[in-house]
Design a protein that fits this description.
elongated, seven-stranded antiparallel β-sheet, alpha+beta, 25% strand, five-stranded mixed β-sheet
Length: 655
């Protein structure tokens, strides 16, 4: 049963290089500790060529002008470790979280999917590189041999079964003590698991005891005194003599050197958490450098999601802002009480604990005030396009700026299964959801988010009884199934029932309806709504409008030549925003010289249009005026009288 091990050397440095890939061509050293006692925690190969070694102080390495120094970041290491687990999870469901820089996975049954173990090892190294980590990959018949090979050999290593002792014989004894080369175990930055390391102790148990490091140093010194320079010499020692001098620890180390230990993996169930975080050295104010950081973080998130065959349904962007008050003395007196209330309400502050216990809160000597700024980006469909995500976040931040310098960036993605869509030959072309969402975001930035989307009808008879909701593309396949089932049902139904159902069902866009009693070839007239409606002054005679004047639109004024109505409607009288109104369909005259159409023909056409709406004209109030010098052109409007406010306005015109 083959096992694979993924090992990331110089893990703190790799975590920094993953966040700043432009530094891979430069010598880099990672510092740990508090100034001025900072020491070098890890270096890359280019820094080793300059003579930089772990353990050197910052003062010793500062004279090297070519060296780039970076502080250790637990946020970056956590994200890098999550990416390492995603790399292993993308190949095998049975993985073990051995250490912060090491992951084991079971390759049993994967040959039919991914090929030979050698090919799987190469694909693992390539996938880790895509995730921003340069890793060593080794494949062996047992987990511990794979770990030793990954730590001792660079690149990709495949050890055939039965050749473990021969291949491991050239390694030095220090590979048996990974805790001496894993500074993360000393700090305890990683979560603990039950996986066992090569020495039989928990590889992730934090913090690493100082006595364990001393024991490892003592054993290495003892091996050096015995003349043991590689694992082949350790494996050749007599077992009885070794047991008498080192006990069971010596026997276990010899079995590791021979590659003869067999154990089972301790698999873990990884939660679907995809997060990236960056802690800035200096506050960030401008959106342009912020976009550069967000672009890299989004690419890393999308790569991790793609490795797990997932997409993003929601993005959550959180900024930790710097309010500018670095010391209590900098806070104005009028803001000190608000600060104390904020600290008392914070769940992570000791202030709140003291206040809740009834004691007076102690005034801190120093306090770096910061607050969180969060933006949620809900996507209509699962997407996996870093450029689209970046543009959407830029538009959102442009409309809702943070308002303070940014100290820390936290980006999280809510995973979801990718959408499965298949186009049809007889379906109209539709825009891609990514481009459509980006277009809607740009429009929302210009007109406002509450003016873009799809309409939702409300349970009311009010003419404006709708509200805007987020536009989500519907599933075309479900519509096709519904149409096929409806068509099959209509074939079996009676034609008279079908006609009656068509007349009773509500209106839906894209469907052609006609008023009962009219011919199927009758034209359809649409009402073009004015937003906002046009205020007009109306002259009323015998309770009916006879003349209107619009102070803003000269084309809406004159005598009313024809009208139909009124139609009264009201509702929501039990609410504060009740409404009551009368509606008329009216016709106004627009004189245009040189027209050859007769007034009688226009009146006849106008009456036909009114019949299409099912509205009857008032013959007593229908008047037509003739002009020998100009023939009138009639325009049909909808006139509304608000009975509560006693205002008149034109709601729209008929095309």
């Amino acid at each position: 049963m083959p096992f694979a091990c993924i090992f990331v050397p110089d893990f703190p440095v790799e975590a920094v290089l993953r966040a700043e890939p432009e530094l891979r061509s430069q010598p880099v050293a990672v510092l740990e500790g508090k100034p001025p006692l900072q020491k070098v925690l890890g270096v890359n190969d280019r820094a080793r060529q300059l003579g930089i070694e772990p353990g050197m102080t910052k003062i010793q390495v500062e004279p090297c002008a070519q060296l780039t120094l970076r502080p250790r970041s637990s946020l970056r290491e956590t994200a890098a470790h999550a990416a390492l687990l995603d790399c292993a999870q993308s190949f095998s469901p049975r993985i073990e979280d051995t250490a912060a820089d090491t992951t084991l996975l079971d390759l049993a049954g994967l040959e039919s999917l991914f090929g030979t173990p050698a090919r799987i090892a190469r694909d693992l190294a390539r996938r880790a590189s895509d995730l921003g980590l340069e890793a060593h990959v080794a494949v062996a018949s047992n987990p511990d041999t794979a770990c030793l090979a990954a730590r001792g050999f660079s690149g990709v290593t495949v050890i055939p079964e039965g050749k473990e002792a021969e291949r491991l014989g050239t390694l030095t004894p220090d590979v048996l003590f990974p805790e001496r080369h894993t500074p993360l175990a000393e700090s305890g930055a990683k979560p603990t698991t039950s996986a066992k390391s090569n020495t039989g102790k928990s590889a992730n148990s934090a913090p690493m005891q100082k006595s364990d490091l001393q024991d490892a140093a003592r054993l290495l010194e003892l091996f050096d005194l015995w003349g043991i320079r590689n694992l082949r010499a350790l494996a050749a020692l007599p077992e009885v003599a070794l047991s008498q001098r080192l006990g069971q620890t010596g026997i276990r180390l010899q079995q590791l050197a021979r590659g003869a230990i067999q154990r089972t993996l301790v698999p873990i169930d990884l939660p679907l958490i995809f997060e990236e975080a960056v802690e800035l050295e200096h506050p960030l104010v401008l959106l342009e450098p912020l976009a550069f950081l967000l672009s890299h973080m989004l690419e890393q998130l999308c790569t991790r999601l793609a490795s797990r065959a997932l997409a993003a349904q929601e993005l959550r962007l959180t900024f930790e802002l710097d309010t500018g008050f670095h010391f209590v003395e900098d806070i104005p007196p009028e803001d000190s009480s608000a600060l104390e209330n904020t600290l008392a309400s914070s769940p992570d502050s000791n202030h709140g604990a003291a206040t809740s216990s009834g004691q007076a809160p102690a005034r801190p000597t120093t306090n770096h005030n910061s607050r969180h700024f969060t933006r949620h980006l809900r996507l209509p469909v699962p997407m996996l396009d870093a450029k689209t995500f970046l543009k959407l976040l830029q538009l959102d931040l442009k409309a809702h700026p943070p308002g303070a310098p940014i100290m820390k960036i936290h980006l999280a993605a809510e995973p979801a299964r990718p959408r499965a869509a298949q186009g049809g030959l007889f379906q109209p072309p539709a825009p891609e959801p990514e481009k459509l969402e980006l277009t809607l975001a740009r429009i929302a930035g210009m007109v406002g988010p509450d003016k873009v989307g799809s309409t939702e009808l409300l349970n009311t008879h009010h003419p404006e009884g709708f509200r805007m909701q987020r536009f989500v593309p519907s599933v075309i396949e479900n519509k096709r199934k519904d149409k096929r089932s409806d068509a099959l049902h209509e074939k079996k139904a009676d034609p008279a029932d079908h006609e009656r159902r068509r007349e009773e069902e509500p209106f839906s866009p894209g469907t052609r309806y006609r008023v009962p009693g009219t011919s199927p070839e009758a034209p359809i007239t649409a009402l073009r709504i004015y937003r906002p409606p046009v205020r007009v002054t109306v002259t009323v005679r015998n309770g009916q409008p006879v003349h209107i004047v619009s102070p803003r639109r000269k084309d809406i004024q004159g005598d009313i030549l024809w009208m139909a109505g009124p139609w009264r409607s009201s509702g929501d009288w039990w609410e504060q925003d009740g409404w009551s109104r009368d509606e008329w369909d009216i016709a106004l005259q627009l004189p245009v010289a040189g027209s050859q159409s007769s007034v009688t023909d226009q009146k006849t056409n106008l009456l036909k249009q009114a019949k299409l709406f099912g509205r009857r004209s008032n013959a007593d109030t229908t008047t037509m005026s003739t002009n020998s010098h100009a023939n009138p052109i009639l325009t049909l409007y909808r006139l509304v009288h608000d009975l509560l406010s006693n205002r008149w306005f034109v709601e729209g015109t008929y095309d």
